[in-house]
Amino acid sequence: MNSSSTKTDETTPLTKQNEDGVSGDKNNMGKESTGLEEKLSSLEKDTEASNQNTKRTVINLGTVEEMLQDQKIRAIIGIVGCVLLLLAIAVIITLLILNANNDDKTYRFLRIVPRPRGPTNLIYYRHGDLKKESGIRSWKEMVKEIDEFLAPYRRPVNASLCAVNDRSSLPDDTVCLFDLNTIATECLKPDYGYMSGSPCIFIVFNNITDWIPNAGSNDTS
């Protein structure tokens, strides 16, 4: 009896020692697993932080690219706007020139007095009525224009009586006198026939180099 109890007492410390070793191993394993979890958590946090930094970098690069694209678009819009503005200015200038020349559609060597108005060479006016209408001149305006045109012929300066063949012998500052009495009687009236509806017009030949007009004749034979 005593011997068996002694054996039992001898094995008991070993068992306890084994149990203590197992429990110690468990504690160490628990600590190691906790450390691993902490390391994994730290790695996850570092990974998330790195991903966030990468996203920020990508976003920043994307923002820079967008800004560059916006600048290019603005530059292109600015260039197109400048081109359109220049075209508009050119069109306006062209229209102004055309409108300025629209009053006289005759050839550059030929002029009509009073000048035609509008897109055609027709002369529109209302005789016997001085009321102003849109697009129609009164005959008073045309008479005034003819008066201004004939004024130098009525009061000639440096004019000389000469025959047609004598023109080449005239001084450079002298012209042949044009006698207004040689034109039609109706065109010598103060209103030039505009009041009665039989208007006169004057055809003017501008300076043409080396051109000498032939003398007219009343011979109808």
Task: Please describe what this structure looks like.
This protein has 221 residues and is mainly alpha-helical. It has 2 domains: 101 residues; 102 residues, no CATH class. The chain is built from 2 helices and 6 strands. The strands form 3 sheets. A two-stranded antiparallel sheet has the order 1-6. Strands 2-3 form a two-stranded parallel ribbon. The N terminus is likely disordered. GO terms for molecular function: ATPase activator activity. Its main location: membrane. Belongs to the X(+)/potassium ATPases subunit beta family. One of its GO terms (cellular component) is sodium:potassium-exchanging ATPase complex.
Topology:
Blueprint: H1 2-101, E1 110-113, E2 125-126, E3 137-138, H2 139-154, E4 159-160, E5 175-176, E6 202-205
Parallel strand pairs: 2-3, 4-5
Antiparallel strand pairs: 1-6
Subcellular location: Membrane
Biased composition (Polar residues): 1-16
Organism: Euroglyphus maynei
How would you concisely characterize the structure shown here?
This protein has helices at about 1-100, 140-155; strands at about 110-115, 125, 135-140, 160, 175, 200-205.
What is the element string, with H for helices and E for strands?
HEEEHEEE
Q: List the strand order in the largest sheet.
A: 1-6
Number of helices: 2
Helical content stands at: 40-55%
Strand content: 5-15%
Count of separate structural domains: 2
Strand-pairing-aware structural class:
mainly alpha
* CA(first)-CA(last) distance: 185 Å
Mean pLDDT: 70
Major β-sheet annotation: 2 strands, antiparallel
Cα gyration radius (Å): 56 Å
Low-pLDDT stretches: 1-11, 13-18
Basic shape: rod-shaped
Number of extended strands? 6
Transmembrane segments: 75-98
GO cellular component, one term: sodium:potassium-exchanging ATPase complex
Protein name: Sodium/potassium-dependent ATPase beta-2 subunit-like protein
Membrane topology: Single-pass type II membrane protein
